[in-house]
Amino acid sequence: MIKNKILEVLKSHKPMTKEQILKQFEVSKIEKASFFKMLDELEKEEEIFFNKDSEKYYVIDGGIYTSGKIQGNERGFGFLLQEKADVFITKDRMNGALHGDRVIAKILEESKGNSKEGEIISIIERRDDSLVGTFQNQKSFGFVVPDESKISYDIFIPKKFMSGAKNGQKVLVKIDKWPKNDKKPEGKIVEVLGYPGDKGVDILSVAATYNLPMNFNKEVIEKAKSIPQEVDKSMIKGRVDLRNLTTFTIDGPDSKDFDDAVSMEILENGNYYLGVHIADVAHYVKQRDELDKEAYKRGNSVYLVDKVIPMLPKELSNGICSLNEGVDRLTLSVMMEINKKGKVLRHNIVESVINSDRRLIYDNVSDFIEKNEIHSSVKGLEKELTAMNEVAKLLAEKRKNRGSIDFDFPEAKIIVDSSGHPVDILKEERRVANKIIEEFMILCNEVVSEQFYWLEIPFLYRIHEEPEEERLNSLNKTIRHLGYKLNTQNLSSRDVQELIEEVHGKEEELFVSTLVLRSMRKAKYDSEQNIHFGLASSYYSHFTSPIRRYADLSIHRIIKDFLKGDLNERVISNLEENLPQVAEHISATEKSAQEAERMVESIKMAEYMLNRIGQEYEGIISSITNFGIFVQLENTIEGLIGYSTMSDYFEFNEEEYTAVGRDTNKIYHMGDKVRIEVTNANVTKGTIDFRFIGD
Q: For residue 656, is it within any domain?
C-alpha cells in the first residue's frame, strides 16, 4: 500500500519537503493530485504533519513528535495526555493551545525518562468554540472568565458583542479568534444565562458547557404533538395481547417516564415465568424522521438532579410511550421460563400490548419484602412480588458465581426545594426492590443480546473490555503495602470480585474499590460483540430503556424488523455500514451526559456546604494525593484538605499512599477516621475545602 511506503520513507529519512517526496517516489504530473490526496489522508490520520515554517513533512511516531489532547491549567501550563506518561508543556511553550485542543508536540531533547517535556508546534483541532463563564463589564469592552479552571485565558468581548449582558451574569460565549502571540481569545456572547444563584442558572450553565440542548425545536415539537396519545385497534393488530396479564412498574417516587413493566407467574412444573415488557418506542419514532434525528443527536436523556433533559419530547417520554398505570401501551415483551437454579430454559420476544395494573414505588415494595409491611399499592400482588424476590436472588447468586463485580459505591440523594437549592443530601439506599428490577433488566439484556449474536444479525452491543495490563500493574503497586494483590495472569472478573469482597467492611474499602474501578476500562457501545467484563457476561446489550437511550431504540428496530421478516440484504448492508458510527456517537453522548451529571452533583454539594462553613463533621480519608487529602463524609460529600493549609509540611508517599509530616512524623492513611471543619465551598467549580480539627 502506497501510504505505508510513504510512512516507511519518511521514517527512514530526515523530514522531507513535498518536492523531495515526489522525487523519491518518481511521481508523474498525472499522478500528483492523487499522491497529494494520500498525503492529506495521512495528515488526517495523524500519521504525519506538515510544518508550514520549514515546509517539511514529519512523522508522528510517539517519539520526537507525538499528538494528543491538551489538559490545561489555570496557571497557563498544560499536559499533553498520552497513554503512558503525559508530556509537560510550560506556559511559554503552549503556543496558544487551550484545554481540550488536539495538538502535535515536539518532545524536547532535555527530557529524561518518564518526565517528558514538550512544545506545541501545531494545533490539529480546536476544542469546542463555546464555553460558559462570568461576564465582567469594563464599559467599552468586557471579559468572560471561564467556569472551566483549566482555561487560563479570559475571553475578550468587544462592546458590540456583549448582547446586553450585565456585570456578574453567567453567559455562553462563542470564540471567534483564538489566542495568538499572547493575545487573549476574542468572542461574542450568544446567550445570557442569568445571575449565579438564580433558579436554574447552575443547570443551564452545565448544560451549555456540555452542549446539552435544553429545548426541542419547532419541527420536533410539532411532530411529537401529531402523535395520537391513545392506542387504537389498528395498532394492536398482529400483536400478542397481554392486557389480561398482571403487569406493573416499579420505579422511584418522582419517575415520570416508565420504560419497563414486569410480570410473574408460577408454571405448573414449578418454574417461574418472568415477563419483561419494554415500551415500543420504535413504533412511534421512525428512522430518519424529525424525532429520530433529534433523539440520535442527544443520544440519551440527562438527569441533572431536579432537571431532566429528555431524549424525546414529553408527549412520548411521559405520554404515549410511558407504561403508565391503567392505559393500553405498545410493548416489546421478553417472556422467560426460569428454573429453580436461575437458568433461562426458554424465552420468546414478541411485539405485544399491555395495560399496566399498578405503578409501584421501590420503597413500598422493599418494605413488603424486607419487613412484611403491606402498603395499599402492593395489596393483591404479594404472591408475584414474593416470587420475583426469589428469582432475583437466584439470578444474583448465579451472577456472583460466574464472577460479576458489584462495587456498590454509595450514591448521593440530593433533595432540593422549589427554587432548586439543596436542602438535604443523604446516602441513597439501594434496597431489595431496586435490586430485583436491576437483576431482571440485566437478564433481559443478556437474553436478547445472545439471541441476536447467534442469529448473526448486525447489532449494537454494550461491551466492557478487560483491563489493560499496565493499569493493573499500577494498581498492584499501590495496594501491595495494604497486603492485597490482584492476580494479573489470565485475569478474570472473578479475581476482581474476590478482591472487592476481601476489602469489604474494612477501613480501606472505599480507597481500594475506587482504585480498582479506575483501573477498569470504560464500558461503551460497539457493533462488534465482546465480553462485558464487569458483569462477567459473554453477551450484553442495552434493550430495556428506549425512552431514554438511543442504543435501545436502535436494537428495537432491528428486533422488530427480524420479527416481521423485513431484514433483507439491503437493510442488513445498511446496518453493517451505519452501526459502527452509531456506537461511536452514542458512546460520546453518554460520556458527556455522565460528566454533566457529576458536575451538577458537585455544584449542588458545594452549594449545600456553602451554608455550613465553620461546621464540624466526622469523615474518612477517601484519597491521598500529591497536593492534599480528600475526606468523605457520611452523606458522600467529599472535600479537600490542601497540604498548604496544614500546620506541618506534609509529603505524599506514593509507594504507601500516605501523607507524612516532616517535623511531627504524623502519618495519615487511607480509611482513617478524622474530624474536619468546612472552610470553603466554590459553587462555580463544585469544590469544597476542609481542614483537620486538632491538626
A: yes
Give pLDDT tens digits for 618-635.
999 998 998 999 999 999
332, 456: one domain: yes
DSSP letter (8 states) at residue 282: G
Residue 19 has pLDDT above 90, yes or no: no
pLDDT for 114: 62
Same domain membership, residue 270 and residue 312: yes
In this structure, is residue 207 part of a structural domain?
no
User: Residue range 640-665: average pLDDT?
Assistant: 90
- On whether both 101 and 48 belong to a single domain, the answer is no
Residues 107 and 144 occupy one common structural domain: no
Task: List the grid coordinates of 453.
Answer: 449474536
| Angle, helix 32-44 to helix 2-12, in steps of 10 degrees | 70
Q: Whole-prediction pTM value?
A: 0.90
pLDDT computed for residue 31 by the predictor: 84
Pick from 232-246, 284-298, 565-579, 660-674: least confident: 660-674
Query: 200 in the Ramachandran plot: left (φ > 0), alpha (ψ -120 to 50) or beta?
Result: left
* Neighbouring-strand partners of residue 549: 300
Q: What is the dihedral of CA 230, 236, 239, 245, to 10 degrees?
A: 60
Q: Which helix (H) or strand (E) holds 72?
A: strand 65-72
Burial profile 522-534: b = 16 or more Cβ within 10 angstroms, e = fewer = ebbbbbebbbbbb
CB-CB contact of 674 with 618 (8 Å): yes
C-alpha cell, 148: 472551566
In a domain, 75, yes or no: yes
Query: What is the average pLDDT across 599-605?
Result: 96
Picking from 572, 599, 626, the residue at the C-terminal end of a domain is: 599
SS (H, E, C) 110-125: CCECCECEEEEEEEEE
Beta bridge partners of 661: 650
Q: Do the beta carbons of residue 419 and residue 405 sit within 8 Å?
A: no
Instruction: Read off φ and ψ for residue 579, nearest 5 degrees.
Output: -60, -40
